[in-house]
Write a structure and sequence with these properties.
Elements (H helix, E strand, L loop, with lengths): L4 H12 L5 E6 L2 E10 L2 E9 L38 E4 L4 E4 L15 E2 L4 E7 L2 E6 L4 E6 L6 E2 L4 E7 L1
Antiparallel strand pairs: 1-2, 2-3, 4-11, 5-7, 5-10, 6-9, 7-8, 9-11
Amino acid sequence: MELDFNELRDLLTVINQTDIAEFTLKSGDFELVVRKSSQNGESLPTVASSAPLPAANAAPAAPLPTVVTTPLPAANPPAPMPRANDRLVDIISPMVGTFYRAPAPDEPPFVNVGDRIRNGQTVCIIEAMKLMNELEAEVSGEVVEILVDNGEPVEFGQVLMRVNPA
């Protein structure tokens, strides 16, 4: 399995913004373990990776470089945008990724401003680490604002849409 630096950084960012305490990714001779630890009450991820040991009869391999990892500070979600109407319910991005309004480029959007939605209805897709994550509404009502353009990157905790609940 090959992960470039940007994919690894994105993976660590997504894991850091969840309640996952430990994450292990194994593929062939590659293993990545990410554990969050508490230090001074602050949640911090740590990273360890390993490669398999060479077979006993294998020729000596070049020494592996030593990599020292330092815990990354936990990301703080951005402050929510102020609302004009406190009755509106925000639909918030649960992860870092790319926002898509439709299931495919040639398909109509899941929802438009003015549409009535129901609880559990798919309202958009957030692509993270090449995985398409359908985001479902947690409230029924009318979509009054869509705050993100199609194909735009979004942050964890970012308001995507506002709904006037039914």
